[in-house]
Structures are given as structure tokens and as C-alpha cells.
Amino acid sequence: MYKRFLVFLFLFLFVSGLTACQNTEQLPPVSSESESESVSEPEQSQSEESPLSLYKSVLLNDIPFFSDNRELFISEISRVVSEDSSVKAKATKFALIDLDKDGALEIILWLVVNDNDDFGFEILRRKDDKVLGYTLWYRAFMELKEDGTFSFSGGAADFGYGTIAFTEDGYEVNKISYSESSFDSDNNQTVSYFVNQKKASNEDFLAAIDEQSNKKDVVWYDFSEENIKTHIR
């Protein structure tokens, strides 16, 4: 009787083991990949167009800029100086600088007119989806520095340095340190001096001018397709 009980117990355990094995084999296999890995990644959005791309297109003569409400290509740069066909202007250098400290760069073109290296400059400024041009004569925009300041001169007793600000109608020069001359009724000249827009002595004014002269000049690049593509990206 006892042996028969052991036989039944052995058979019961054996059958239970087979059933457990069958249930284990019926379980679905676990994926070796995580759910995040099995889902395809969304494509990366394309980078936004460079803020300088319009400048590059203008300088490469692909699109026009606007000067005095006219559309002009760089190949027509002579027209910012004169409509006289005998006047030949060309850009020989360019610089990149944030002149008005608004966080956006401007392009400065150094203009040579009829072989006159010191004729003037064309400032290119992006506004929305257009590039605007501003023409400044050499004595109004000399010795441009890395910090955006520049020198100006209206005569031996009228000169100084300042910055530029752009307006809806054009631009204005903010004088920082400068001298101004005036004449009385007897034609006697008086010269006034200002440092940081405050009246100053001649000595303090000349010291401010020396300090300005010692600032680093802006970096100028030769106007070439290679330099345009390299430095304006």
C-alpha cells in the first residue's frame, strides 16, 4: 500500500513538471530592444538660414540691395556714388562688425572710386528680408575700430569720434568726443571741446583722441569670392 502511494506521488509530480514546462514554452518571447529603440527617431529639423546668407548673396551679385529706394546689384556699386558713367567705383575690401550694438552684424565695403582709395564706404545692413545700403564719405567714417567707433572730420578744428545709429530715414552719428568751431560777429574763431559728450579742456580732448587712436582697427578682408564664402557664413 505504501509503495503504491509512492508510485502515484511520483507520477503526479512528473505530470505537473511537464505541464509547467509546456506553459513556460508558450510564453511570448521578450524583445531584446527597448520600446524607445524600436520606434524610429524623428528627422532633425533643418538648421535655420544663416543671418549672413543675405549678405553673401548680395556680395556675390546674386540678389540686389536697396540704396536710396533703388535696387542695385554689387556690379552697379558705382551708382551709389554717381549716375555719371565716367565715375567707376568698386569694393576692394570688406569688414564685418555690429556697428549699432543691436546683436546683428553689418557689412562695411571699402569703396575705391576712379583709383581714389580714400573715397568712402558703403554700409550694408539687413532689415527683415532686405539688405539696405548707406553711403558715407571717407572723412565722415574714418579709422573704424573693433568696438564700432570711428573718426570723423569736418575741418582742422572740427573733428572727433563717435558711433552710428540707424533710423527709419537713414542714420545719425552719435558724437562722443569732439571739437567744434564757431565764429563771432567779428569773425573770431572759438573752439569748444567735448569728452564723452561733456565740455572739456583741450588737453583732455587730445588725450581722449590719443586713446581712441590706440584702439584696435576693425579687420578688413580683400573683396574676393573666396573671402566672401570663407568669412560670411
Describe, in plain words, how this protein is organized in 3D.
- With 233 residues, the chain is α+β, with helices and mostly antiparallel strands.
- The chain is 24% helix and 36% strand.
- The chain has two domains: 49-145 and 217-233, no CATH class; 150-214, no CATH class.
- It contains five helices and twelve strands.
- The longest helix is centred in the first third of the chain and has 25 residues, at 2-26.
- The protein is globular, with a radius of gyration of 37 Å.
Give me the secondary-structure topology.
Blueprint: H1 2-26, H2 35-38, H3 53-59, E1 65-67, E2 70-72, E3 89-97, E4 106-113, E5 116-127, E6 130-137, E7 150-155, E8 158-166, E9 171-183, E10 189-195, E11 198-200, H4 202-213, E12 221-222, H5 225-231
Antiparallel strand pairs: 1-2, 3-4, 3-12, 4-5, 5-6, 7-8, 8-9, 9-10, 10-11
